[in-house]
Design goal:
Structural class: mainly alpha
Radius of gyration: 18 Å
Distance between the termini: 27 Å
Order of helices and strands: HHH
Number of strands: 0
Shape: elongated
Number of helices: 3
Mean pLDDT: 81
Length: about 70
């Protein structure tokens, strides 16, 4: 979970920087939308991933070892 949270924070910071840069440099609505579409898509993927991770139950390490043998 810690790695996932770090990735979410890194992606959020990167997308805020991208959108802020586009808004500052260009007032064209097409470019702003083009910068927002990937951010929205990523937010949807991260939300779906988070809900899936929260729904999974823990597997005992010995069970994993039995399957691997």
């Amino acid at each position: 979970m810690g790695v996932f949270a770090a990735c979410v924070v890194a992606c959020a910071i990167a997308h805020v920087g991208i959108v802020a840069s586009v808004v500052r440099r260009s007032r064209a609505i097409k470019e702003i939308i083009w910068a927002l579409v990937p951010a929205i898509a990523l937010a949807l993927v991260l939300t779906a991933t988070w809900s899936e991770l929260r729904g999974q139950r823990r597997v005992e390490p010995r069970v994993i070892m039995k399957i691997a043998r």
